[in-house]
Design goal:
The chain crosses the membrane at residues 20-38, 45-64, 84-103. By secondary structure, this protein is mainly α. It is built from nine helices and no strands. Helix 1 packs antiparallel against helix 8, helix 4 runs parallel beside helix 8 and helix 5 runs antiparallel to helix 8.
């Protein structure tokens, strides 16, 4: 998740392989942690599929990026239905704060040394989007310790 956030800030992209790796990693860890297969499928994978359907609809309208859509779905797999509302709310709040911060940043004149940094110039460009992967990742990391999977994993340690 941290890699996704950093990648989004630096390149304004989130690689497809990262979202796939997150889902595969979840399935492997969930099986090792003893989550029942029915819970993995009905609670976690179904939640991720529903979020993917929703976020791809948002992507189709041009409201979010494709990487953000896939990252939100992969994160939802880790959290499941029981934490989806909290994830949505926290992501929205963090995303709003991030958007306001980026908009304020874009109003500033950048010093010359900053203008030589391609990633800073991308963030500063008024016509670019916001690296929403940061909000998605932070919200996921904040909520994950409340999940059943985390409790099971900590029971193994």
């Amino acid at each position: 998740m941290a890699y996704a956030a950093i990648s989004d800030v630096l390149t304004m992209t989130i690689a497809n392989r990262l979202s796939v790796l997150l889902v595969v990693g979840f399935v492997v860890l969930a099986l090792l942690a003893g989550l029942p297969v029915a819970v993995i499928g009905l609670d976690h994978l179904a939640c991720g599929a529903a979020v993917l359907l929703l976020t791809f609809t948002l992507f189709a309208f041009g409201w979010i990026g494709g990487g953000d859509a896939k990252l939100a779905a992969a994160t939802a797999v880790w959290l499941g239905w029981s934490h989806l509302g909290d994830y949505g709310l926290l992501t929205s709040l963090l995303g709003a704060g991030l958007t306001l911060l980026i908009l304020q940043f874009r109003r500033l004149a950048l010093p010359e040394f900053c203008c030589r940094q391609a990633w800073l110039m991308r963030l500063h460009e008024k016509h670019n989007g916001v690296p929403y992967g940061v909000a998605l990742a932070v919200a996921g990391l904040v909520i994950y310790p409340d999940t059943r999977l985390w409790q099971n994993v900590m029971g193994l340690v």
